[in-house]
Write a structure and sequence with these properties.
The protein is an alpha+beta fold and 437 residues long. The chain has one domain. The chain contains twelve helices and 14 strands. The strands form three sheets. The chain has an eight-stranded mixed β-sheet. Strands 11-12-13-14 form a four-stranded mixed β-sheet, covered by helices on one side. Strands 6-10 form a two-stranded antiparallel sheet. The longest helix is centred in the last third of the chain and has 25 residues.
Length: 437
């Protein structure tokens, strides 16, 4: 490390803290339908972590949690405890952790009576409040570096879950903070890939592949606290790029990503006085008009037949894709029932944040979103740009493309949003980024 870099004048203060948020044995794991999964223990701990930044003008906290999603009501509760700090809370979206929201369970999971545990939710909220206090109360002179690094399908990590050659985002976002001695104290990585290297047959608590990014970084930078934020992974998974759904494959992918992140950190340019800005706005995304309940039920029967036919072929990919389409049809059916009863999600309207860290811009979005929109948003931001999804709340379903609606994909079925919701989002971001310029 160059001495002149370490001696750079620093105005920035930073703090970092983490806490184990692993659930007790027996608590249900979330993320897969029709699969009651009372956990049988912890394979690797789930962590919540906070990176706190203060440049003398703005106080900013990034919080990440190894959890499927964080509810908007929890975010509001936590923010009320820190009126002087701008807070972003992002989920890793692991499918081997518990629910931490009253509303994140999918429609068919609600119909089966599965969902969050009140005691765990209270513990989770308290844990987040605790690490923000700890990070903000124990600061050090700091410098920050940010960059993107490429690590995708070309390295066997992941890509589009509908087509091996489909659209993907191989960039990993990297934010690192070091202290006055040059010691790296925090690393935040953002990456667009569903943490589903582990499937519904796994009953052990795990952060999935991000756990192995954390493990690798801890070897290289033992003093660093690791944070992971999910990117635009609505249609991104390891389906065509893995040799199985197990811990070995999660370790392979996470270690590969960890190597890329650490290589990126070595080349960062450090800034001891970054400009920090953060603005947020809310959008009313258009909602679907659901088919009559009888029509939705008939579509479930159609997808059930397709799923059985796929199983008969013995083709894993065809079977899994057909099963996802069935899940989407089941969700549409349940949404039709919920819609007729007048259901309105408490997660609405949707919050979007636009954050500036020096020469880097970050956009955050509450829900799961197709990668096509994530890539477009990064272009709108311009320059060095990051995108974090499942942040500051969750949404009732995916923000998917019109093409997915035509194909009646799983994501289109598992959503209460109309097919033009993504277009409305893009227009809203263009308007706000332009006004911010």
């Amino acid at each position: 490390m160059k001495k002149e870099e370490i001696k750079m004048k620093s105005v920035l203060k930073a703090g970092a803290a983490q806490v184990d948020i692993s659930p007790k044995k027996g608590l249900q794991l979330a993320g897969y339908p029709h699969c009651p999964r009372p956990n049988e223990g912890v394979h690797d701990p789930l962590w919540a972590a906070c990176l706190y930044l203060d440049n003398g003008k703005v106080k900013k906290a990034f919080v990440t949690a190894d959890i499927l999603a964080v509810g908007k009501q929890s975010v509001k509760l936590i923010r009320k405890q820190f009126p002087g700090i701008d807070i972003t809370i992002s989920a890793s979206h692991t499918h081997s952790g518990p629910w931490a929201s009253e509303v994140e369970a999918l429609a068919y999971e609600k119909s089966e009576g599965t969902g969050y545990d009140k005691d765990y939710l209270a513990f989770f909220e308290s844990a987040i409040i605790g690490i923000i206090k700890k990070a903000a109360g124990n600061t050090f002179d700091a410098q920050i570096g940010t960059d993107n690094t490429v690590c995708g399908a070309e390295r066997g990590v992941g890509g589009n879950r509908h087509s091996k050659d489909g659209v993907c985002d191989p960039e990993a976002a990297v934010i690192a903070v070091r202290d006055g001695k040059g010691t790296v104290r925090a690393v935040l990585c953002g990456y667009a890939l569903h943490p589903t290297y582990l499937h519904s047959d796994n009953f052990l608590v795990s952060a999935d592949y991000p756990a192995y990014i954390r493990r690798y970084i801890s070897f290289v930078y033992p003093e660093a606290i690791f944070l992971f934020a999910q990117g635009a992974s609505g249609n991104q998974s390891s389906r065509y790029f893995r040799n199985g759904q197990n811990f070995e494959e999660a370790a392979r992918a996470g270690t590969t990503l960890g190597t890329a992140v650490c290589d990126c950190i070595k080349g960062l340019r450090w800034d001891g006085n970054p400009e920090i800005k953060s603005e947020s706005f809310e959008l009313d995304l258009p909602m679907k008009k659901y088919p009559p309940i009888a029509e939705a039920a008939a579509f479930v029967k159609e997808r059930e037949a397709k799923f059985e036919a796929a199983k008969a072929t013995g083709d894993y990919i065809k079977t899994w894709n057909a099963e996802l389409e069935l899940f989407g049809a089941q969700n549409t059916y349940q949404f039709s029932i919920m819609s007729e009863s007048g259901y309105v999600s408490p997660e609405l309207p949707c919050e979007v944040q636009i954050i500036s860290l020096g020469d880097t811009k970050i956009a955050t979005f509450q829900g799961e979103i197709f990668v096509e929109y994530g890539l477009e948003i990064k272009k709108i931001l311009g320059g060095k740009a990051f995108f974090f999804s499942v942040s500051n709340g969750y949404l009732p379903g995916y923000t998917y493309t019109p093409e997915a609606a035509k194909q009646k994909t799983y994501e289109a079925g598992t959503s209460m949003f109309a097919q033009n919701a993504g277009e409305v989002l893009i227009k809203g971001i263009k308007k706000n980024v332009k006004s911010d310029a």
